[in-house]
Amino acid sequence: MEFLRNICDSYIKWKPLEDYIYRIESYQDSDGVLVLENCKALIESICKTILEDLGEPATGSESIQNLVSKACNKMSCLPYTGDLTKSFITVAQRLGEFRNKFAVIGHGASVYAIEERKNKVTRAATNFMISAVEQLAVFLITVYQVEYPLQKQEEIRYEDNPDFNQQFDEAIEPIQIDVYGPYSPSELLFRIDEDAYRAALSNYPSD
Questions:
Q1: Domain assignments of the chain as residue spans, ordered by start
Q2: CB neighbours (10 Å) of residue 107?
Q3: What are phi and psi of 204, to 5 degrees?
Q4: 3-state DSSP call for residue 207?
Q5: Residue 110 vs residue 14, higher pLDDT
Q6: 177 by DSSP, 3-state: which?
């Protein structure tokens, strides 16, 4: 899980996740059940951290798929990733179901059941699960650390910048579209490309 480890190294906040990574990698070839336990705990830890930071602490009874869904919705990343995020939520749901079926730590199974369940989690399933969980973990952390802060930049209203709007409109002819218009260039820019409006506003000399 080198990719995820590098992410944790880049953001000191996530360093404690390396304990989960260590256990997952340690049991990857020997005990798929323990890998399941730690994969589930890893994703839960990320989601609970994000939700707590954003003022919506998770309750102790929420399923893993609900935690992933809430974290994605809280960061407003669902509209931007569509089916990708929904697929990740499905992965989380299946991980939870898989873990509940084979888990041994939380239920105190007999030694016979432990060995039987361990043998049912194949090497291929374990490796696939690790890959899927790593991608989900990297997605959640990257959105939270990089993309979410950009989405939360200070809101801007067209009406708050009358001097700039007037100067911009004086420099450019009103815009006519067929029989529609004329439109204010500054307002049209604001409505169709807010980033471009912000850039132009940033170059406007302030008092």
A1: 2-151, 158-202
A2: 8
A3: -80, 125
A4: coil
A5: 14
A6: strand
Is 43 in contact with 63 (CB distance < 8 Å)?
no
Question: Is there a contact between 36 and 99 (Cβ–Cβ < 8 Å)?
Answer: yes
Contact by Cβ (8 Å): 4, 138: yes
Class of domain 2-151: mainly alpha
What DSSP character marks residue 205?
Answer: P
Q: Is 72 exposed, middle or buried (0-12, 13-18, 19+ CB in 10 A)?
A: buried
d(CA 155, CA 161): 13
Q: Which two tokens stand for residue 144?
A: 């939270």
Report the chain's C-alpha Rg in angstroms. Answer: 24
Residues near 165 by Cβ (< 8 Å), separated by ≥ 6? 158, 184, 186, 187
Q: Please determine, for residue 2, whether its predicted confidence score (pLDDT) is greater than 90.
A: yes
Q: Phi and psi at residue 165, in whole multiples of 5°?
A: -60, -40
Quote the CA–CA distance of 66 and 92 in Å, as a whole number: 9
- Closest of 39, 44, 41 to residue 66, by C-alpha: 44
pTM of this prediction? 0.64
Least confident of 1-10, 43-52, 147-156, 159-168: 147-156
Residue 154 in tokens: 């200070």
Question: Given CA atoms 125, 126, 130, 136 in this order, what sign does their dihedral have?
Answer: positive
Asked if 50 and 57 touch (Cβ cutoff 8 Å), the reply is: no
pLDDT: is 80 or 204 the higher one?
Answer: 204
